[in-house]
Structure formats: structure tokens, C-alpha cells
Design goal:
Structural class: alpha+beta
Helix content: 40-55%
Mean pLDDT: 90
Low-confidence stretches: 523-532
Strand content: 5-15%
Oligomer: single chain
Amino acid sequence: MFKPKDTQTTIFQTHLYFPDKFRNILKQSWAEIFRKDIIPAIPEEAFSKLYSQNMGRPCVPVALLVGLSILKEMFDCSDEKLIEELYFNIMVQYALQVDPFEAEISIRTLYNFRERIMDSPAIKETFFSIVNKIIKETSIKTSFQRLDSKHFYSNMAHLIRLQLFVRTVEKFLKSLDSSYIEDLPEYLRKRYLEREGYFADAAPNEAQRSLIQTAEDILFLLTHFSADDSVTSLETFALLERLFHEQCYQPKDSNKALPRPADEISSDSLQNPSDPDATYDGHKGEGYQVQITESCNSHNPFQVVMDFETENANESDQNAPMPIIEDLEDRGLKPDIMAVDAGYVSGKNILDAEEQDVVLLGPLTTGRSSDNDKLSLADFHMNIEDRIFECPQGAPAIFSTENEDGSIHVQFDYEHCKECPARDICPVTQRGRLTYTREKATTARRKKEQQAHEFKEAYKIRSGIEATNSELNRAYGAKKVWTRGFNRVNLAMAFKVMALNIRRFSRYATEQIRLKASEIGNLGERYVPNTV
């Protein structure tokens, strides 16, 4: 049964019996900020739908469990260590507003809570509630933000292709009842069960032959059990079937199986049977990625992560800006300028962002170009709707029309064009025609803008987000998270990003507390009469 955290504290809290000196130290620590600002910001009601309203025992307060989950990532520790800290660390008890008698939480309660909330929208509600609290307390300016993606791994081994085949077969065979195993050919039991994984230890010159043999073994198993509903309903059978369809094929008019060529395998193919959700990025390998959006105003005392989106590793950055801008707009946190790297920038994305009143600040990849001396669309004079009304030589357009496919057709006086001194470098045809799209016009304009000194100076601040990615890896273990599966790694990443924001906030806030305490102390000393 759902029950919110009781805001009434008890007389049994340990800090109440501390000497003043120790209590003052506690008041100037991260634990005070967590207790005073973070715990009250956790929207417990957002989690109420996950519990019964009138049946069962009252739940452990959600604020306590969420707070524990954040502290796990702040300390980058195991669950066992986290529970130990809850039992015996007075600062943790103080931060979570619990006394030693309330701190009796089993590790199983923590596990069950994660299972309950892993795909709940309440996680994002909690993230934004904490962000809004930090912004309110510190007056962080959010009009200028930056965006970048960070690749990370789940808690799974890196497998070469032969190991992937063998592990998937092993996992399937181990899930079968012993009666099924006894009916299998002896060579299958010997390859995959009697000495686990030995078939994947082939020498490099034998690997391809072993891979072909494993593909044939998979085909045999799929065919052998195809009519048995109790087997085909197993998750491990589905993985075996998926692996075969993604990485193997049957030659025409043949009952044999062969591995597909590497260049025919999709980036969303199975990477490890222990984590079926993981995908592949050609540059960074298997795993996942997270889109991180961060404030970047130079006048802020520190920067805050404004949003995050966990994605498959094979997702293109081109698809990221607009959903994030829309998400930020829904929360009242939309920026005026968003700095991104070249992977996010296209004519379409620039235009889509402009429709949301956001400037997408980032360079376009120019690629190889042998026609730098030629005129581009950016050299023509356009109105605010990207309609050309004059050429670079000052000749006015006779008319312009928009076609059904969205392209724009502009007509110039072809007699003038024939005699134009820029004829050889102009994209207008000899008949005075020019057809283009708004996206191409925007692309040409951005390529010209990014050469300017002002653009380069404004764009320099984007690189600061690399330090945030590095901090997530070093301090919060975000290079390789402790769990597997999309929903689980998303939950872990959510708490890691919250932990990063909270630690930055607590560093700043505790420093302000110490400065005020120092000022008060100095002021007091200044007016203490000299009795000597």
C-alpha cells in the first residue's frame, strides 16, 4: 500500500545528541543539502500508481528508496555497501531523514523497488523536479545549453562472433529439461555442455570452420525443436532463432547453414545473449548511448544537466535534437541556443529548431570540396522565407514558385545570365533557372556562417560537455554500468545523472554555507572588545 514519507522527524535521530561542534560540521556537509533540498524535491505522488491505495502493508517511503538509489551512484558502490552505509553511517541517515530504527531496510526491498519503477515515467519526473529545485536555489541560467552523446557498456562481456554463437547455444541447452538433453546427439553435448565454451576457443585459423559448424548446429536445434511448444516458448529459443536469422542463412536448395558476411549484419543484431537489448556502433562497439543536455552559460556558478535520453548504440545523433528540445519545452526549460557537434547538424534540424525558436549552434561537415570558388546558395539574397529575390550580381528574380515537393523554383532573365561575368561559377542554368530547397539554402548559409570568427568563438563553449562525460565515467562508473537490459541501464543512468547534479549543487551550496559562517565569525571577532 502506498504511503508517503512522514515529514515529522523523531527524537531518536542520532545527530540531535551530537556536541554543537559536530552538529555544525554536519550542517556544513553534503548531507545537509541532501536532507534539506533533495529529499523534499522527490515527487512521491508520481510513484503512487505503482502501489495499491488501500491493500497490503504500507510501503517503505519512496523518498527513502529513491534517495538510497541516488546515493548508490554518488558513492559508486555496490548494493551491499549501500545498505551497510545506511545501517552504520550517521551522515547517510541524516541525509535521508531517518533514525537508526527506521534504517532497517533489506537489500531485497531495494531490488523489488527497482523492478517496480524501471520503466516508470516517475523517474523522469523525479529528475526534472530535482533540476528545477537546483535552478531555483542557485538561479542557474538555462538559455544557452549544449548537447552531446556518450557511449557506455552494460554489465556484459565482449564476445567475438564465434563466442556469441557458442554462448547462445549453451544458454539454450542449459534452459532445457534433462530429458531433452539426453535425446540430443552426443557430439552436441560434447561441444557445448561437457566442457563449457571449449568450442569457442578455436585457433584463429580454425575459427571460420568452427563458426560454420556452430551455424549448422543452431539450424539443427531450431529444426529439431520446432514442433515442441514447450521449447519454442522459451526465451532462450527465441534468442537462438533471432541469432540465426540475423547472422546465418541457408544457401538456395540446401539444408546447410552458413554465417552471413560481416557487412550484411545489422547494427541492431544480438551482441550477447545476456543482454538482448544491446546494439552495435561501428566506432564504439556494442552497448548503449545516452544523450546529455547541459546548461553552459559562462556566468553560472556551475552547470546543470538539463535532460538525458538513453538510446540504443546504433541510433543516429541526427534524430536527437528535436525530441530533446520538445521535452525541455514541456518542462519549461527550453533554451534559446543549443550547441551541438557536427553529428547533430543538418539543414532539416536547423529549420526544425528554428520553428521552435531555438538556434541549433553547430558546424556542418564540409567534406572534400574542389569548387570553393563557385557561388553557393548562401551568396544569393533571400527573404526570411528563404525565397531568393536577387542574385550575387544584383540581377532581380523575375518570379519564384514553390513546387509540390517543397522545392523552390526561381527564374532570372536568361539574357542577363548569358552575359553575366560570373557565368562559370554560378549554379543558375543558362536559361536562368535555379531550383533548390529550404534545407539546401540553410545548409549553404551555415557552411558560410561557420567560417566567421564570431561563430567559432560562440561555439567554443560546447567542448565543455566533454568534461561532464568524463566526470560521469570517472566518478559515477558510467563507462560500464552495473546492470543489463535497456530499462535497467536507463534507470541506472538516470540515477547517475541525478547524482552528478546533486553533487555539483552540494559542492556549491556547502561552499556558500562555509563562506557565510566565515563572514559571521570574522564579523564577530572584529567587535569583540580587547580585554588585555
